[in-house]
Batch of 4 targets.
Target 1
Amino acid sequence: MAGKKLGIGIDLGTTNLLVYVQGHGIIFNEPSVVAFDVETGDVIAGGEDAFSMLGKTHKKIRVSRPLRDGVISDMDAAKAMLRYVFKRVQTIRNFKDSKCLICCPSEVTQIEREAMRDLAIQMGIKDVFIEEEIKAGAIGAGIDIYTPTAAMVIDIGGGTTDVGVLSLGDVVLSHSIRIAGNYIDQEIVKYVHKQHNLVIGHSSAEKAKKKIGTLLETDELQTYRVSGRDLVTGLPSSVELNSDEIRNILLPIFDEIRNVAYTVLEQTPPELAADIVDNGIVVDGGGALIPGIKEYFEEQINLPVRIAENSLTAVVEGTKVLLKNRGSYLVNPTD
């Protein structure tokens, strides 16, 4: 339709990049990784294909994660990643007349926000605005944030965890910490190094987290074998991890997240706190998929907890509403 801008919503995540385009749905949902030919600078792979190359390349290929801890650490790689995404979608050709929403963690600095905005502008999109991930995630998780009733959200992503309270279409208060999925992977790598004298990669740690990671205490242990380089012999080796070991790594990490939730609740105005007592807390993001999250937060915070059904895509799905409702705090638009 003439005069109507195409809406593009981007969840520029540390772990995964998700892109929503009005009229096309979610067109991309793959790891935020891009691979370059070192000699020519050309992109040779992105997303899943590039992710499979991590830790396995030779000197002629460079694999990069454009984001670290929720912010752009490699601008060239971030631009290349988005170009790669849009090039893959043959049905969408012209973005210059589009409006683009990029979601970021709540405590990203103004300089970091400008870097994200510049990323889209340099690709030819003139109308670019930034919203907080926690706001988009709340909408995507099915919360109507445009009412006077408060909602509390814990968004556990790859690079950051955001905890916030929303009401009347915006964030009332929020806190963000750079302790999330990637941090858990790093702690697993450190644990295996220290306890088993084995050096493993972050991909192996992530697989162990997904396979046997849990906050539930159970008599039936699950196991997962990880492989790497033995520190004593220098040779390839492997060790079997169990779910109790991973749980002991996870608990202090989630205690940190719980402490942030405490801080937010302590700062929440009384009327909004009353709503949270009635409505509880919604958890989204990749970290929400770890078994036992609901039980852990309910026990620790003593409030009802709901895990978003679409935890991994809640943020980008929330951009559908924010793209239509830009600048309004009182009306929740419908299709």
Target 2
Amino acid sequence: MKKNRMFAAAIAMAIATASHAGGVHGSSHGATAGEQGKLSDVSKTIQIDMYDNYYEPENIDVKKGETIRFVINNKGMLVHEFNIGTPEMHEGHQEEMLMMIQHGIIQGGKLNRDLMEMDMGNGQTMKHDDPNSALLAPGETAEMIWKFSDDGNIEYACNVPGHYPAGMYGAFKF
């Protein structure tokens, strides 16, 4: 099954690269999915392991108003993202992530952080430093503190082209 996911991701990435125009990275991807939390308000810590192309755990139970510390590990062989948002937010962000591939920032299993500082011509960069998102190369770990101030249709996803359609997303269950 994991081989099928890898194959599906490769096909989806090829299709996405051939058929989409990129957007600009740097918008607020978590505007309706909650807000950055404070360490002093954390009620629990959840470990997220990212593989090629799935998460463990696949779903997470949360409560409205709860603040969670996520410890995110990329255990895969590809660059992956942990991004908290609505399905609509993820759809828009996938176009921005495509631009990161087109500019050589994401190269399969490598992440060129120097290129993330590049000015895209409008004063915006591709730093990928939003509080609801972590972009990690294989073997990297990050922490995120998130407050679930909303309880709508919120999920976590990898928006690297091809990964979301291959099934790399999970639901927050309220």
Target 3
Amino acid sequence: MGAVALPFVRPLLVRARRTQAVPAGPPLADAATLPPHDPHRATWPGGEVTSGGVTLHVRETPGHGDTPAVYVHGLSGSATNWTDLAGLLATRAPGTAVDLPGFGLSRPLASRDYSPAGHADALLCFLAGRGRPVHLLGNSFGGAVALTVAARRPELVRTLTLVSPAMPDLRPDPRRVSDWKLLVAMLPLVGRRARSELAAMDPRTRAEQIVRLCFGDPAIAPEHRVAEAAAELAVRARLAWAHEAAERTGKAMVAGWLRGESLWSVAARVQAPTLVVWGERDRLVAPRLAARTAAALQRSRLLVLRGVGHVAQIEAPEAVARAVAGMWDAVEAGTWEEPG
């Protein structure tokens, strides 16, 4: 069985463990049941919200549905990474896109704990304070955080969507060579010089470099989204904690990998129906991990998108929305467990 095919999406079979088959593709919602995609949609309004003793800056998407959606960005990302997808899913769920502590416009926690476990603790408390289960979606580092929350507090997570989650992988990948500076900057000891050089870049240049690293086809990145990213980087450069949060979070994540801390065992404990989405051209988290990640989860389906990079929710929001909405509909109908 392979990932589902769309007109611009082809199945990609990625070898999992020898004894594991590639999980089935997800059911897809009819595109007519989703609102039209507005590529020029402005970012959703934001503000600070305190829940469960944790204060985060969030962006709220008004919508309809009994189960709200919560969106979690990746390393050095923010709530604005979900603008398009949250809009497409608003007819099924109101959305809350969070800025993790120290990222976006969220202030750091008093503990200054930027470890993956620290971020997961903060999100877990925030969700528990709201007192209702959610559809939880995470990209990259945010996917790893969401995975941990779902494993630790299953009653809080109705469904889980992981977009290129930051699963541990220390094997070299030749595709990353051209983007070595951003990658080296994440390393705990040797990345200091690369981090200094990145910090010295003007916001527009840095935004363009991030697009080149994260998009499968950087040429399709909308100009207004690049400009938004540059403006956000300029604002963050003036926040006293921004550099500390990005550096210490990246270092803590890689250090955990080096210590052998494994998300694979965490994934095995997740009970929620889970959609795994991966871009075939992901340069940050290797697509070879896609099938293994889905196979490690008990109730998962896998979607691999041709020509897409690390941020599928930005690069191919309509394809991702159809898969996510299809999962939500199938779970509601009790058909998620049926063979693909």
Target 4
Amino acid sequence: MASITAQANLRRRVAEVDASISGLQYTRLALLRQLDAAAPSYPILTNISREVTSRIFVHCLDPLSYGHSTTSPRYAPMLLLHVCRTWRSIALSTPELWANLTLDFRRMSWALFQGATLENFIEDCVARAGTLPLSLHVNGGCSWEHTEKVQHLIPTILKRLSSRIQTLDLNIDLRHYPEDTPGFPLLQKLKLRLLNLNAFLPGNHPIRIFSAAPQLRELSMQCGATPSLFSIPGAKLTVFSGHRLSTTECVDVLRMAPSLIECHFEEPELDPDTPAISHSGLKSLTISLLGDNSSCEFLTLPTLQNLKISLYDFENVQPILPFISGLSASLLKLSWGTSPPLEVPLMELSAMGALTELKLCDPLIESVAELFTLLDLTKHHNFLPQLQVLELDQCAPYVNAILVDALSSRRALRSFRQFWVYNTPADALQGYYREEGLGVALEELIRKGLEIYIGLRNTQAPGPGAWLFNQPRL
């Protein structure tokens, strides 16, 4: 009798649970109907076309491809898949969202390393990218428990995607490179960095996987990556950037790249046996030199038009003057910076008759005073006659009648900017300059079309007009 009663109680409880489930299912369906009915009322879904929304989604991507991995659910494109069904559909059908693939193994969740989860994710991204060429950014750093997985996965990815990659940024161990690939027929931009500088494997170098990259135009080598470690075709290279290469390696780059137009050498290390080289095609050079033992004397650049040079820990500018003098005939733009502040090579500047743009960073105030004097064309007719843009950055406050006379004498000048050092007490200086009547004179130059900025550097670039002492337009 007791067992019959227990069975009856169980059946009653099951019936109650079934009824509760049915009620919840009915409530769920009712809520879904309400959501479906309300969806058309969302302006972002009804007033903006799918095409426009798709373009907006593309702008949600990190423009530098740094800061997060494509796998992250907190950022685009993955975040866009979890907002609503319409956005998910648009995101999945926008190839540009998936053609830029960033794999930062340091930031990936543990679950992605299980089984073939990550491999499947990459396959899905490639499929969603359609026929678009791929941009791949890989950071091979990872925790020790995933090292073996990453060492296997990176070579597999490079082999699998080599025929589709147009831009490639690798920050990986030398041991991550595959022994060979079918080639990179679309590769145009390549950036190489090394994670583990001690993982040099002499028997496997130079790495030859980029030998078949006929479209390569831009090459950057940073953080220990050097030309001697890789076999890279240089015949069509137009842009090169290298960090802490030896000067001999810099010469090797210039020799292997006869089509080079733009070059960046960051803190090259002087090799006393560096051979001299002349490169007739180079138009733009950015170079930073560290210490008085640095030199550019091995370089002859007869057609260079744009030079940005920074000197660190130099006692004087003498070591660099022969190089600067050799560029006087062709140079159109010069950016000069030193730390600590050094004199500006005004004598060498006087020979640059074609110069149109001059930017000085952290100049000595004595050099600024002499420069303002020389800029007065009524007294110095041949000093930079073609100058159109003059900028002084991290400059001690120096505004006086000599400057106004110089600016007034130059019809070709379009822009003058003087950015003061950050700790400048602008308010204390304001009254003195206004008493001199300089504001009125500068305002007259603005009315004539000259762009002037004098004051502290703002977060946004100043537009046409003048702002003195970080105040609104005069």
